[in-house]
Design brief:
The complex is a heterodimer of chains A (184) and B (267). Chain A has nine helices and no strands. By secondary structure, chain A is mainly α. Classes of the chains: A mainly alpha (184), B alpha+beta (267).
Chain lengths: 184, 267
């Protein structure tokens, strides 16, 4: 989706639930993927993802196209939720309260399959474990840059920081990661 | 992973870029969350409307408060001050005082009343007649000069009716020197005036009046000046100077004229 389309959809989403649904369909995978890469746990990722979209819905009326795109805004909410999770280390919302959808797939089988898939990425899990030991400010820039393949400008937009700050955070984060490798 | 040991930062970056990340989705969660959010949509939309109206109202109220504040504290007082000055200057009594060199010392406004303090022109010290002149005029003995009272005028202006309601004359009180000030004057005089000089008089200054707003009323309060006027005589010549107590020096020295030595009183 190009920027103009996104802009139009966001505008419509303020009055039309269908447009909001389209935005959700467009960004769910990206946001869930980012959260999963940050927490490396499916249950936690599900909860944080739910909280992220609920916050996005609650605050959609406030969103304006001023220096930040809608996708960056969603990433910013997700990032804040992950940081809150790490700080408080507790779950915010449980989907158990949400009524069961009409679905032909079996959720428990899905979870098991997803967990199996996650276990297949051993290299990712090992390095993610190392990254998760860094300070949050380094974790977020490293994951956005290397796992989400975001440009420095986009990371700056998501985190609300200057590009120079992002570069130096990346450099220092990589340095700390390298030190961690050396100590082992 | 073992190969990662002793890597440089760029090598760590390269390694991170090559890591295959999991692309996992949980369709049931996606669907459940979608339905939940769409179910919440109408309720949230009502909240949006409420908050956006509330935000607009808050913004409008803040703007009004700001406008009111600016008008009340900056525009209206300045306008009222100018208006009060204009009304006062139209009054013949005040006009005459200003023409004689009087100055508007203070101006304060309370509700629809303006209070204007007019200070008369500063007293000019005229040199005393010389001995020869005094003889020609038949003056044998020196008269003791009494300081003329120079009352300050307090005008009360009704801004609504655009007229001067009342003019009151107030004599500024003379605030006597404290012991400490007396000692200081003595010390400065000894340092600044010739040793053979005889101090004739040390005059405390007239206090300056100012207007103070207190509990919705105007009060006229005296403000003491940190100075003293000293008159001294060296031989027949009489001098007047101002002792600045703050800077501890003698200034504005003036020659008053020649007087007979027997007329001196000494310290």
């Amino acid at each position: 989706m190009d920027l103009n389309e996104e802009k139009e959809l966001v505008k419509r989403a303020k009055n039309d639930p269908e447009a909001f649904g389209k935005l959700y369909d467009e960004y769910y995978s990206q946001i869930f993927g980012y959260i999963l890469k940050r927490v490396a746990n499916l249950d936690i990722a599900k909860d944080i993802c739910s909280e992220t979209f609920l916050k996005a819905l609650k605050n959609l009326w406030k969103f304006k196209w001023k220096g930040i795109s809608f996708s960056s805004w969603l990433f910013r909410i997700a990032n804040n939720e992950v940081s809150n999770y790490f700080r408080k280390n507790k779950k915010k919302i449980s989907l158990e309260k949400i009524p069961e959808p009409i679905s032909f797939s079996n959720p428990s089988t899905e979870i098991l399959e997803a967990e199996e898939k996650l276990k297949e990425h051993q290299d990712f899990l090992k390095i993610q474990e190392k990254i998760s030991k860094l300070e949050i400010k380094y974790q977020e820039v490293i994951i956005l840059r290397f796992f989400e393949k975001k440009k420095i400008k986009e990371i700056a937009e998501i985190l609300g920081k200057r590009e120079g700050t992002i570069k130096s955070l990346l450099h220092r984060g990589l340095e700390k990661l390298r030190e961690d490798f050396e100590t082992k | 992973m073992e190969n990662l040991i002793e890597k440089t930062c760029s090598e760590v970056a390269e390694l991170l870029e090559k890591i295959k990340t999991p692309e996992i989705e949980i369709p049931s969660h996606k669907e459940k969350l979608r339905q939940f959010l769409l179910g919440q949509y109408q309720r949230e939309r009502k909240n949006w409307l409420f908050f956006s109206v509330f935000q607009k109202l808050a913004f409008a109220s803040l703007s009004l408060i700001l406008i009111f504040f600016v008008f009340n504290n900056l525009i209206y007082p300045n306008y009222s001050l100018a208006k009060a000055r204009e009304i006062a200057l139209k009054d013949p009594q005040i006009k005459a005082m200003i023409e004689k060199g009087g100055t508007i010392k203070d101006l304060q406004i309370i509700k629809n009343q303006a209070y204007l303090l007019i200070q008369p022109a500063k007293e000019e010290i005229t040199p005393a007649p010389q001995i020869a002149e005094k003889r020609a005029l038949g003056i044998e003995e020196e008269k003791t000069e009494t300081k003329e009272e120079r009352p300050v005028a307090l005008a009360e202006i009704n801004l609504k009716e655009e007229r001067v309601a009342k003019i009151e004359k107030i004599v500024p009180p003379v605030i006597q020197f404290t012991e400490k000030e007396k000692e200081k004057i003595q010390e400065i005089s000894q340092r600044e005036i010739p040793k053979e000089a005889k101090i004739k008089e040390v005059i405390p200054p007239l206090s300056e009046l100012k207007l103070i707003k207190k509990e919705g009323k105007i009060q006229v309060l005296p403000e003491k000046k940190e100075e003293a006027t000293i008159i001294y005589q060296v031989d027949k010549g009489r001098w007047q100077g101002k002792i600045n107590l703050k800077e501890e020096k003698l200034e504005e020295l003036k020659f008053l004229g020649e007087f007979e030595n027997n007329a001196t009183n000494g310290k």
